[in-house]
Amino acid sequence: MLFQKFAGNPVLGPEAFPSDIMYVFNPGAIRCNGEYLLVADAATAATPIVFWIARSRDGIHFTPDPEPIADWPAPAAGPENCIYDPRITFIDGEYILMYASQAEGRGVRTGVVRTKDFRRFTRIEQAETGRNNRNSVLFPEKINGRYVRFDRPMGDDELEPSDMCISYSDDLSNWYGSKVLMTPRPGCWDSHKIGGGAVPIRTSEGWLEIYHGVDLTCNGYIYRLGVMLLDLDDPSRIIARGGMPVLWPDRPYEMQGRVPNVTFGCNALLESDGTVRIYYGAADTCIGLATAKLDDLIAACHRGNPVAETFFFGKKQENSIETLELATL
Ligand code: BMA
Fold first, then answer.
1. Which of 40, 52, 200, 321 has the most crowded CB, counting CB atoms within 10 A?
2. To the nearest whole number, what is the mean pLDDT of the chain?
3. Is the pTM of the predicted complex or chain greater than 0.85?
4. Ligand 1: which of 284, 285, 286, 287 to mutate, most ligand atoms within 8 Å of CB?
5. DSSP 8-state class, residue 275
6. 84: CA distance to ligand 1 center in Å?
7. How many other CB atoms are there within 10 angstroms of residue 79's CB atom?
8. How confident is the model at residue 314 (pLDDT cuts 50, 70, 90)?
9. Does domain 4-321 have CATH number 3.40.50.360?
10. Do residues 266 and 27 make contact, with C-beta atoms less than 8 angstroms apart?
């Protein structure tokens, strides 16, 4: 596996929390004021998910705040009944959080909230589209003068296959120019649903995106992470999409829990030595840490999946490399 999982995983689980929290997962992550800061989904058995901040000086030992985020700003249209999967983007001197915002009677939308200090949060109201949408991830820079995000408009049926899209905005409220960026690949690890994951990292070869892919087996879903590279000036153009996943569930804490066989990513932090660290949700129950070298992740984008490509597409794709560990297929 390309990502190395930290031997002391999980780095954060429900037992660290002061109340009846049973599940802590899928955090947004950022470095802020010399700390690693996670904004995690936190849930009891009975209540909807809330956002709970945990902080760490060393990136390994995390201390949760005494309470979940207080004064989370409600949308003008009415209260949310569930919020989850925040992605945190630092842009123009502030932090923008994009997350799944569910409300009674209107399905799920992308919620957008801004903060400068992770204490006071202000809502950026979103133009109503009449369609479900989540897995939104804001790029860390404007591109050609516009904000850019991944998102995933979708129907009401959770089981429907879903594509990963890209859209644009001038004000972070109205999103336009939505285009399908990538579709699931038959027969591969990302055959059923795909969605944005980490805030993309600018590299000399393009935007590196770590996304999630869902495979449907006769015993349920498997959530894995994969990589792709997008053009720096036109991120709707895919330069390369890795054929194999870079992280997948193979440890007990990822295979057993609220939802088994899930590794889910909402962040990727590039360190000064070229290491990328991710804090990923495991089995919708706890949080693992994994690291990889940026160069290796870029190389993985160019590596194909020859067996699947020959079988499902009738020929190998151009970026295939024969020397894959095919046992993981
Ligand atoms: C997705 C999201 C994630 C979750 C995953 C696996 O649809 O809801 O929050 O981790 O399913 O249950």
1. 40
2. 91
3. yes
4. 284
5. E
6. 9
7. 9
8. low
9. no
10. yes
